[in-house]
Amino acid sequence: MTPLTYPTENRRNILLIGDSYGILKRIAFALQRQGHSVIWGSSGEVGLRAVESDAPDLIICETRLSDGSGIDLCRTMKASFFFSTPIVLVGKVCDEKQDAPRALNAGADDYIGTFTDWQLVMAKLEWMIQRAALDDKFVRRPGFTPVASVIGCLN
């Protein structure tokens, strides 16, 4: 059987933030099998440093971190006007009713419960990765408004 190979232009850097290695470890393994590079941040502080140094294409963060709240970390990152990296927050099913709305209000692009259907989790993450790849194709030009820069790319 021939091993799967992925074109380098489809490879993305994915940052995982958290210290609970249950679902994050499973996600990391699946993403690596798809050819993506996985970066780990064991805490919010380490994760923020990785955002600055590694410029990930997607961030997957637990809602509960050893040094604070993943929801607050998401809010901090999304507060920057130029921050467009998709963020997916992962939380426990028992906390989903309160955490999911808070995560989305903080700017998260999606929320995944720990025991969500695995095929749904991977489909959501693949969609986020594809969206990040599409965003890379739209280059902003200095002096253009966001609408004008998109129109400029389409011409």
Description:
46% of the residues lie in helices and 18% in strands. It has 6 helices and 7 strands. The strands form 2 sheets. Strands 2-1-3-6-7 form a 5-stranded parallel β-sheet, with helices on both faces. The chain has a two-stranded antiparallel ribbon with strand order 4-5. Helix 3 (70-78) runs parallel beside helix 4. Residues 1-8 and 139-155 have low confidence and may be disordered.
**Integer tally of domains:** 1
Counted beta strands: 7
User: Overall mean pLDDT score?
Assistant: 81
Provide the structure class.
Answer: alpha/beta
Q: Please give the CATH architecture.
A: 3-Layer(aba) Sandwich
Could you please say which CATH topology applies here?
Answer: Rossmann fold
Question: What percent of the residues sit in helical stretches (DSSP H or I)?
Answer: 40-55%
Tell me, what is the CATH class?
Answer: Alpha Beta
Helical run tally: 6
Query: Per the principal axes of the C-alpha atoms, what is the gross shape?
Result: globular
Write down the secondary-structure element order: EHEHEEEHEHEHH
Based on CA atoms alone, the radius of gyration comes out at: 16 Å
Largest sheet: 5 strands, parallel
Strand content: 15-25%
Q: What is the first-to-last residue Cα distance? A: 45 Å
Give the spatial strand order of the biggest sheet. 2-1-3-6-7
Going by CATH, what is the homologous superfamily?
Response regulator
Task: Give a brief outline of the structure.
Helices cover 46% and strands 18% of the residues. It contains six helices and seven strands, in the order E-H-E-H-E-E-E-H-E-H-E-H-H. The protein is globular, with a radius of gyration of 16 Å.
